[in-house]
């Protein structure tokens, strides 16, 4: 017997699990994103260092050369800022199907990216408490989410394929 929809019944699209607007990514998924991004960021920082080494006569940088850590910090911000402001996804966010957006689901600005980046460093410097806040916050948001007025959301999921008809 074939099941046909009655004229007054509308077919509803079902979303994939964890793709509704209510669910937000939790701590472990976001931690995985951090590790994915750190792998890529380390590679970028190695290249950035290789570009700068000839200017230091090929010698390692020492503690008195404050320019070098500042340089790496700027490169790190450019890495995160570019991805966050151009599509909302770093490689790690893309792999885990997440996006950084404003709280009303809009792309973030460079100002928000800078605020998010700097407050994430502060979050980390307090023994990671800003990140661990995700575990106790009802909205699963970190300090840098709140302070930059941004949030991490699941990427928009396409509707599941309609049931096949025979």
Query: What's the number of extended β-strand segments?
Result: 2
Strand order of the largest sheet: 1-2
Low-pLDDT segments: 10-18, 158-166
Tally of contiguous helical segments = 6
**Helix content range:** 40-55%
Q: Give the C-alpha Rg.
A: 21 Å
Largest sheet, described in full? Answer: 2 strands, antiparallel
Strand and helix order: HHHEHHHE
What count of structural domains?
A: 1
The overall pLDDT, averaged over residues, is: 85
Instruction: Name the structural class.
Output: mainly alpha
Give the DSSP E fraction (strand runs of 2 or more residues). 5-15%
Terminus-to-terminus distance: 11 Å
Shape: elongated
Topology:
Elements: H1 27-52, H2 67-85, H3 91-95, E1 98-102, H4 110-125, H5 129-136, H6 143-148, E2 150-154
Antiparallel strand pairs: 1-2
Structure description:
The chain is mainly α. It has one domain (27-154). The protein has six helices and two strands. The chain has helices at residues 27-52, 67-85, 91-95, 110-125, 129-136, 143-148; strands at residues 98-102, 150-154. A two-stranded antiparallel ribbon has the order 1-2. Helix 2 (67-85) crosses helix 4 (110-125). The model is unreliable at 10-18 and 158-166 (pLDDT under 50).
Please give a handful of descriptors for the protein shown.
single chain; 166 residues; mainly alpha; 6 helices; 2 strands; 6% strand; elongated; disordered C terminus
Short description:
The chain has 166 residues and is mainly alpha-helical. It has helices at residues 27-52, 67-85, 91-95, 110-125, 129-136, 143-148, and strands spanning 98-102, 150-154.
């Amino acid at each position: 017997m074939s099941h046909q929809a009655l004229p007054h019944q509308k077919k509803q699209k079902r979303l994939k699990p964890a793709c509704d607007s209510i669910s937000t990514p939790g701590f472990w998924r976001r931690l995985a994103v951090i590790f994915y991004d750190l792998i890529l960021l380390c590679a970028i920082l190695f290249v950035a260092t290789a570009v700068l080494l000839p200017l230091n006569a090929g010698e390692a940088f020492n503690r008195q050369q404050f320019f070098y850590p500042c340089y790496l910090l700027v490169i790190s911000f450019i890495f995160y800022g570019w991805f966050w402001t151009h599509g909302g996804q770093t490689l790690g966010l893309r792999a885990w199907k997440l996006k950084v957006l404003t709280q009303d689901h809009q792309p973030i600005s460079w100002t928000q990216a800078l605020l998010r980046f700097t407050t994430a460093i502060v979050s980390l410097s307090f023994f990671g408490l800003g990140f661990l806040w995700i575990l106790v916050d009802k909205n699963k948001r970190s300090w840098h989410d709140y302070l930059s007025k941004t949030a991490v959301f699941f990427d928009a999921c396409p509707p599941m394929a309609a049931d096949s008809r025979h």
